[in-house]
Amino acid sequence: MSKKFDVVVIGGGPGGYVAAIRCAQLGLSTACIEKWTDKEDKPVLGGTCLNVGCIPSKALLDSSHKYEEASEKFDLHGISVGKVSMDVEKMLARKDQIVKNLTMGVATLFKANGVTSFEGTGKLLANKQVEYTDHSGNTEVLSAENVIIATGSVPVEIPPAPLTDDVIVDSTGALEFTKVPKRLGVIGAGVIGLELGSVWGRLGAEVTVLEAQDSFLHLVDQTVAKEAKKLFSKQGMDIRVGARVTGTDVKRKKVTVTYQDSEGEKSEEFDNLIVAVGRRPYTEGLLSGDCGVNLDERGFIHVDETCKTSAPGIWAVGDVVRGPMLAHKASEEGVMVAERIAGHKAQLNYDCIPSVIYTHPEIAWVGKTEDELKANGTSYNVGMFPFAANGRAMAAADTDGFVKIVADAETDRILGASVIGPSAGDLCQQLVIAMEFGSSAEDVGMMVFSHPTLSEAVHEAALAVNNQAIHKANRKPKAK
Ligand code: FAD
Ligand code: AMP
Q: What's the whole-number mean pLDDT along residues 140-153?
């Protein structure tokens, strides 16, 4: 007799564990199968995000930011700290402890909500049955009214740069360097490459980023991307666009990287190389031939806008399906699916999913960029406000960057926002809320913002859309 549940979730990352908790909250008997084990071979929940993604990378970004501030910025405030040093082992141990607390927290939440945890691997069979294999190889079959697949993604590997034990690494290896590399190469100027390059660059590595595309951060508003490239270069990051890596050669714990740019073939030697060329959906060993779930041409599980797969009662969420590979996108899809299984009419506004790059300054955006509006012929107005004119940013000596809002020229409805600057992720979130409520730039301009806050830059950018900013000269002052 197979164990029976209302819902079986395969994968316990932010897509899967959030879906499982929400299902249980809604009164559904729920099981979650997760195969991840930590460095000590202990089964853990939380997936990529908690174990080797969002959380550990932010822990190292915060440690390295504090180190850089103490080394270079304290003096400005009149604080002398002498020679600053970094204990890398301690920094990594702090990161590991945060990861442990959070993954154990998910296990506690499962218990509190009554989610049954299965430690091992799940495979989807036909007729909503799931084969579960534990870490010792024992197998049993679970059956369910609904199955949610949330198996996530893994780093892309490229033939010219195969990973080695300790010289050429992926994003996971780059969270574990036990000493600061003198010369660090990064392949790929995406979110992960820039964040991990920043961590080790702040701690003293000479960082070179090799990016195959001719443009930098092509998904981001290009005014922001230009500012980011200028600021990162000023911080010492050597960003080479139009540089496609074609080969690597590891000798005596060093790697020589060959790449092709517009001038021909070049090479460069590094102590470590991070391969950060993207992630791919993970479905290895997941689907039996007769389970009825189709993949798309890029290997993602094919789903509709409500995360339904091609097989009845089988849903899929997170990195394993189309859309941005972001933890908050995964978890909101998990909530939507749980609520739909429980009979609610939940939906997700895919036009309002924010993205953040946690460099310093941070970069965050939501909705349309000016470049997209220009390309599709929408008439729009732009409002921008620089942090250099914001009192709180000046007080914090953190004045790089700006807020940029684009709004429909006819209706004034906010269509998109991009922020580069201090706390850009949190500031952009204010505009996500505004967009969810269909706000106009005027609506945001009419709200009261506390003074002095960084948020006032959001307020002023919204006012600037209609040339009504107070703390900067407007381009075309309105005679009103
Ligand atoms: P995952 O988190 O990958 O979880 C999938 C889980 O399924 C895994 O635990 C896996 O072990 C398990 N699994 C797979 N197959 C099976 C199976 N057959 N049986 C049982 N279990 C299985 N996103 C952000 O939003 N913000 C960030 O700041 C951010 N930073 C990142 C930094 C780095 C270095 C990386 C690598 C990623 C980062 N991301 C960030 C992306 C984020 O981690 C992912 O978008 C998110 O984890 C996706 O969640 P998921 O639940 O779909 O998949
Ligand atoms: P993302 O998908 O945002 O993580 O970014 C990965 C980046 O890696 C993309 O901008 C790709 O253009 C870049 N990339 C992929 N392959 C190579 C390569 N062989 N050499 C240099 N850059 C690459």
A: 98
452 Cβ inside 6 Å of ligand 2: no
Which pLDDT score is estimated for 475?
A: 79
CB 387 within 8 A of CB 402: yes
Identify the structural domains of the chain with CATH numbers, from first to last.
3-155+280-348 (3.50.50.60), 168-277 (3.50.50.60), 353-465 (3.30.390.30)
b/e map 243-280, b = 16+ CB within 10 Å: bebbebebeeeebebebeeeeeeeebebbbbbbbbebb
Percentage of the chain modeled with pLDDT above 70: 99
Atom of ligand 2 nearest to the CA of 213: 12
Among protein residues, the one with the nearest Cα to ligand 1's atom 46 is 327
Cis peptide before 452 (omega within 30 of 0): yes
Q: What is the pLDDT of residue 479?
A: 53
pTM value is 0.97
Please name the residue whose Cα sits nearest to atom 14 of ligand 1.
151
Q: Is 451 among the catalytic positions? A: yes
